[in-house]
Amino acid sequence: MTMKSILVTHPGLQHSHQLALALHERSLLQSFWSGVPVAAQGEPPPWWLPGKYRQKVRHVDIPAALRRHPARFQVALRVAGSMSHSRTSSDTTHRIFHWFDAWAARHILRFKPKVVVAYENAAYHTFKAAKAIGARCVLDAAAFHHRTLIELYADPNTPYTPEINRRKDEEVEMADLILTCSPLAAESYVRNGVARDKLRPLLLGAEPPAQVPTWQPHQGSPRFVYAGTLSRRKSADLITDAFQRLHAEGLSYDLEFMGGISEPSLGDAIAATPNARHRPHAPQKELYAVLAQADCLLLPSRSESFGMVVAEAMACGTPAIVSTNTGAKALVEANPGSGWIVEPNVDALCATVRQLIQNPQLLQAARPAAMQSGQAFSWANYRSRAGQLLEEFVQ
Q1: Where are the domain boundaries for CATH 3.40.50.2000 in the chain?
Q2: Which CATH class, in words, describes the domain spanning 223-376?
Q3: In Å, how far are 140, 169, 363 from 175, measured between CA atoms?
Q4: 374: Cβ–Cβ under 8 A, 6 or more apart, which residues?
Q5: Which end of the chain is less enclosed by CB atoms within 10 A, N or C?
Q6: Is the pTM of this model over 0.90?
Q7: What's the order of all strands across the beta sheet hosting 254-258?
Q8: Domain 6-204+379-394 top-level CATH class
Q9: Using H for helix, E for strand and C for coil, what is the string for 73-107?
Q10: What is the pLDDT confidence band of residue 124, given thresholds at 50, 70 and 90?
Q11: How many whole angstroms separate alpha carbon 53 and alpha carbon 43?
């Protein structure tokens, strides 16, 4: 085994810190470079972070000597976010990610890792530099293949979309191994011509913070919750349409939406939905508390390569309704009875929610299986699976 031979780079964070920690636990991590900083336990957050961001820093037991967190990329993202028009903000974000990619590539020549793990849409230059020194390349792909994304939910193209997709195709071609967040996401690459033996699905995990309130039986209507950015891609509109129909049928429920609104019409739809309320943002601990005390999570997405909130809900023992196009359906499939899988349309969602409102004992009966699924897909178990996979790959 080659010790401390793997470099992990990410312009943001996503789950890269968990993969880096998995490698560090096996003495395989050479360095971890991320645009969003993390801190080891007892280590103060970076001095340059504004106060409201210092409180959000993730604590990961990776020594500071093995980490680099250049500030320029986060500063650029914050400035761009305050200035960009909604149609061009995605292009601006991708350009900054590509800038990080070029920065990482320049530094690879000095570090000379044996293996480089880079993330989708920030690996093009990094992989070219890695290939130049004979390193092997691992692509961690957070999304479906870009052609499948268009099939499932056709976002309008922007001026930079062709370049984004060109780089994605090149990254896939250069990668020696591709990690996806779910078997569903892996299949999207197979359907678009990527060799199956190049793909490895690694389901992500979640761990609730200490002292999250536990669910208690309660009187009144079943509590449903949606958490995440409110968008049509995540079917927020299907949820409001379904619950408006159920209310018209005389059924009683409690519905909460948590997260920012990407499309103004969705805010109007929530306001028009009886017994529904919206909370724009919540700290992670507060999010877990809401998930733990809900009866059911809703994530019937039109397109979702995983759906982290499903793992977070199940870590609290809360079952979930997910769609056939949501990668986290694998958590339900692994533990039957932990949730419900529906087609991403109003009729299918209505039918399942109607059954649960009329038979609330089904929600309580699903909690043990949901808890079992949450325990099976913890971050600790993710690190064990990821660490073993990459340890075998580097040998």
Answers
A1: 6-204+379-394, 223-376
A2: alpha beta
A3: 9, 10, 43
A4: 206, 311, 313, 314, 315, 316, 317
A5: C
A6: yes
A7: 276-279, 254-258, 223-227, 296-299, 320-323, 339-342
A8: alpha beta
A9: HHHHHHHHHHHCCHHHHHHHHHHHHHHHHHHHHHH
A10: very high
A11: 15
